[in-house]
């Protein structure tokens, strides 16, 4: 299997239990997660040598974050140590018509204050096949954006394929700032992943669709995909298409374009959703694995969509599904029957 590198922030997640409101909660459920860390866990579950690059404090909570990754087979050799704090996010899980809410407490975290000198990028990308990052990482801080740029330069130097999940986060930066940082970084990217909102707010492209009304016509994406691929010379442009009927009932499919052909995946009706946090990351991890294994954009996309559909049934940030389980769902077995 391949050596795959991801880079970003891993955080302590504190969730209100049993769909309770923050104001009701006397305790929080504890786990760890974050965009690129979630992708690394998925890829380790599929048998790859997944390496996560970040910086965490030397104290016990920083070690807990590292242990959470090691538990699922992610290599942490390239995680720098230092700084004063691990980022935290609080999650209030919604239900029915009440949406989930996230509150960040991540300012001045270790990775936000990291310098390029904290990482030996030549060593990190030696022998690597793939590098994945998301728009969350450069949004953390200007220093994190600088580290990411050095990582992309080193990855390209070593002939590594680079994927980016645009992942716009309005609580971290404005669209104007995102566009000014993200568009120049696109010159390094081979595979661009993002939904309709991400494409508009990070890159300035707007498809003809209205997801707030539950409409995700894939045809509306064809022109924008062609424009994005032509503008940035991507090898693939990919978008998830989510129909949000409620916090616990979503429609889910995806679309991929390789410059020649469009492929639209099968549609999944996900109800009830147990935890949708990390759903996009599980899609990215599935897509990377699929493109590496199948060398067929249709098969790769079906694997990614099935992986993400399964993640919606699992509490926590990480998608804890095996390749076999994902392939079973992608192949049509959605019965949920007990496996004896």
In short:
The chain has helices at 35-45, 60-70, 121-125, 136-140, 142-157, 175-185, 196-203, 219-232, 279-294, 297-311, 323-330, and strands at residues 3-7, 11-15, 29-33, 49-56, 79-81, 88-92, 101-105, 130-134, 161-165, 191-193, 236-246, 249-257, 262-264, 268-270.
Tell me the fraction of residues in β-strands, as a range: 15-25%
The residue ranges in which pLDDT falls below 50 over 5 or more consecutive positions are: none
First-to-last CA distance = 29 Å
The biggest beta sheet is recorded as:
10 strands, mixed
As a percent range, the share of helical residues equals 25-40%
What does this protein structure show overall?
The chain has 340 residues and is of the alpha/beta class. The protein is 35% helix and 22% strand. The protein has helices at 35-45, 60-70, 121-125, 136-140, 142-157, 175-185, 196-203, 219-232, 279-294, 297-311, 323-330, and strands at 3-7, 11-15, 29-33, 49-56, 79-81, 88-92, 101-105, 130-134, 161-165, 191-193, 236-246, 249-257, 262-264, 268-270. The strands form two sheets. Strands 1, 4, 5, 8, 9, 10, 11, 12, 13 and 14 form a ten-stranded mixed β-sheet that branches. Strands 3-2-6-7 form a four-stranded mixed β-sheet. Helix 2 links the parallel strand 4 (49-56) and strand 5. It is globular, with a radius of gyration of 19 Å. The mean pLDDT is 94.
Topology of this protein?
Layout: E1 3-7, E2 11-15, E3 29-33, H1 35-45, E4 49-56, H2 60-70, E5 79-81, E6 88-92, E7 101-105, H3 121-125, E8 130-134, H4 136-140, H5 142-157, E9 161-165, H6 175-185, E10 191-193, H7 196-203, H8 219-232, E11 236-246, E12 249-257, E13 262-264, E14 268-270, H9 279-294, H10 297-311, H11 323-330
């Amino acid at each position: 299997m391949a050596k795959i590198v991801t880079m970003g922030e891993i955080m302590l997640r504190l969730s209100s239990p049993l769909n309770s409101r923050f104001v009701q909660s006397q305790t929080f459920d504890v786990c760890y997660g974050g965009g690129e860390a979630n992708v690394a866990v998925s890829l380790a579950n599929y048998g790859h040598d997944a390496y996560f690059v970040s910086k965490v404090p030397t104290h016990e909570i920083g070690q807990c974050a590292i242990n959470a990754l090691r538990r699922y087979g992610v290599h942490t050799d390239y995680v720098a140590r230092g700084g004063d704090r691990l980022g935290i996010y609080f999650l209030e899980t919604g239900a029915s018509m009440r949406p989930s809410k996230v509150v960040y407490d991540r300012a001045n975290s270790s990775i936000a204050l990291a310098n390029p000198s904290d990482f030996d990028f030549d060593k990190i990308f030696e022998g690597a096949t793939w590098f994945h990052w998301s728009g969350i990482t450069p949004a953390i801080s200007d220093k994190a954006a600088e580290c990411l740029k050095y990582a992309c330069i080193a990855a390209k130097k070593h002939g590594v394929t680079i994927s980016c999940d645009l992942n716009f986060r309005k609580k971290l930066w404005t669209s104007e700032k995102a566009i000014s940082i993200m568009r120049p970084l696109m010159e390094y990217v081979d595979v661009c992943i993002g939904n309709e909102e991400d494409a508009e707010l990070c890159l300035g492209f707007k498809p003809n669709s209205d997801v707030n009304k539950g409409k995700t016509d894939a045809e509306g994406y064809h022109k924008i995909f062609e424009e994005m691929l032509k503008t940035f010379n991507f090898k693939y442009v990919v978008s998830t298409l989510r129909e949000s009927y409620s916090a616990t009932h979503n429609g889910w499919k995806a679309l991929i374009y390789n410059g020649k052909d469009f492929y639209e995946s099968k549609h999944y009706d996900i109800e009830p959703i147990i935890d949708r946090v990390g759903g996009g990351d599980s899609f990215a991890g599935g897509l990377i694995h699929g493109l590496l294994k199948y060398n067929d954009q249709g098969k790769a996309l079906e694997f990614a969509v099935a992986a993400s559909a399964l993640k919606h049934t699992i509490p926590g940030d990480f998608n804890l599904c095996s390749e076999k389980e994902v392939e079973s769902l992608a192949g049509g077995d959605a019965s949920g029957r007990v496996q004896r």
